[in-house]
Amino acid sequence: MVLNLGPQHPSTHGVLRVILILDGEIVVDAKPDIGFLHRGIEKLAEHRTYHQTIVFTDRLDYLAALSNNLAYVLAVEKLLQLEIPKRAHYIRIALVELQRIASHLFWLGTHAHDLGAMTPLFYSLREREAIMDIFETVTGSRLTPSFMRIGGVAADMDSSSVRDIQKFIANFSERVDDYEMLLTGNPIWKSRTCGVGIIPSEECINLGLSGPLLRASGCGWDIRKSTPYSSYDDFDFEIPVGSTGDVYDRYLVRIKEMRQSAWIVSQAIEGLPEGRWIAREQAAVFPDKQGVASDIYAMIHHFNLVLEGVRPPAGEVYHSIESPRGELGFYIVSNGGNQPLRLKIRAPSFVNLQSLVRMVKGKLLSDAIASISTIDIVLAEVDR
Amino acid sequence: MDIKILSETLGQCIIEIESFNTEVTLIVDRRSILTVCDFLKNDPRLLFDFLSDCCGVDRFPESPRYWVVYHIYSIAHNHRVSIKASLDDAKPVIDSVVSIWQSADWMERECYDMFGIEFRNHPDMRRILMPDDFQGFPLRKDFPLEGLE
């Protein structure tokens, strides 16, 4: 039997369509069909200045918009060879780690919901909502903040936001205990997830899997540790790894990652250095608003950046970060002009989704649903 | 990573070693892409086991116009390198590296979909993001931003 799953089906987490060939309840073959959400962001970026592209990056992985912002601005900063202030690094880290928690929470809720456990969704979205509120106070926006700037961040984090974050982090660990109480030892949860969708680590590497999927199979590769960016080397944290690489291990890895992220956020908040949050003296960075209103040179500078943008030297850079879903990379080719000649987004969801066929072949249809949600895809990022 | 290893062992296949900031890019002859990739993956001093990305670049109006770029990484040695190969303007074709890194499957399909670059011996060479009956290759520089009629 041929079964068409999606593109409008809640368990496909967006507009993913999978054509399943079934023999009874066993999946004989699966053909993922993607591209329903293709907006041509890479093409659009070739026709925008470097600053304008920041807002597109929010629309890639909308569950981790700040991580996308960060990966893009880091790539541009690498191209421009910009040094940015320490405080900006710490604010960025605090925000992207909160974003990782928010993204994992959303994954946890929907993943459990796909497998028939309704309750965790309400708990995890409650905490995610608290993070969205923090984002709203700090960045002014909940889902698509566009908060990172070339050279730093758009605004400083004030003491009231710091207190909000501290309040959230203080009891977050207990909240994670709550989710674990509902799921970790639950026999129904274990029977739906243990031994399902196993991929051994060598195969994960060959398939290009990164992030929690790779780490659940026992390979502890995390870009935050292997190539620390944004002063991650100042922080003390562990990389949780699994052993068997099944759906249950990926669940455990993400749960532990949330705890680690909360720990990183608290370190970033406690150790938040004094100073500036954006490298204003750099030519590629927008002058501050006050200056634009009172100083003619700042005004001209602002005007030039809006109309002309920056012209990085001709060259090519690839920069990747550890997003909640894995290796998120931006490859920028500059020919010295004010628009990139080519911008390629290495989207972790796109590469990770390839493993779906490998996971579901010869397994039960209900396991296919578990496998789709364990990959943690965001179709906006898959299709770009 | 010692760049010398590369120039010593892959001398004939490498046209140039480019470096920009901290990035190292090998420009290789497209006919020897499989030899180079196979060596990079299997040599114990290099062990580039992880293909991060593979994508096309259109440098129109320059010639050669099409390039394929591979970003590879070694988990064991924690080093990274990029490989570039230029293609023929009239008929952009290159060998597929799916036999070396399975992850190249969708990446090469996307590259074909967006640039019309063909990958020889790819197991499933068809469009991936655009509809099957789509005309043209959207990321080529001569494809208008607004799309075709």
Description:
The complex is a heterodimer of chains A (384) and B (149). With 384 residues, chain A is mainly alpha-helical. Chain A has a single domain, classed as Cytochrome-c3 Hydrogenase, chain B (Orthogonal Bundle). Chain A contains 18 helices and 8 strands. In chain A, the strands form 3 sheets. In chain A, strands 1-2-3 form a 3-stranded antiparallel β-sheet. Chain A has a 3-stranded antiparallel β-sheet with strand order 6-7-8. A two-stranded antiparallel sheet of chain A has the order 4-5. In chain A, a hairpin with a 2-residue loop joins strand 4 and strand 5. Chain A is globular. The model of chain A has no long low-confidence stretch (mean pLDDT 90). Chain B is of the alpha/beta class and 149 residues long. Chain B has a single domain (3-120), classed as 2-Layer Sandwich (Beta Polymerase, domain 2), CATH 3.30.460.80. Chain B is 19% helix and 30% strand. Chain B is built from 3 helices and 7 strands; from the N terminus they run αββαββββαβ. Chain B has helices spanning 3-9, 33-42, 104-115, and strands spanning 14-20, 23-28, 50-58, 66-74, 79-86, 93-95, 118-120. In chain B, strands 1-2-5-4-3 form a 5-stranded mixed β-sheet. Chain B has a two-stranded parallel ribbon with strand order 6-7. In chain B, helix 3 (104-115) links the parallel strand 6 (93-95) and strand 7 (118-120). The longest helix of chain B has 12 residues, at 104-115. Chain B is globular, with a radius of gyration of 16 Å. The mean pLDDT of chain B is 87. The A-B interface holds A 34-35, 38, 40, 42-44, 47, 78-79, 81, 205-209, 219, 221, 226-227, 315-318, 320, 327, 329, 331, 333, 335, 341-342, 344, 346, 350-351, 353-354, 383-384 and B 20-23, 25, 49-53, 55, 57-59, 69, 71, 75, 78, 80, 82, 101-103, 105-107, 110, 114, 127-131, 138-139, 143, 145.
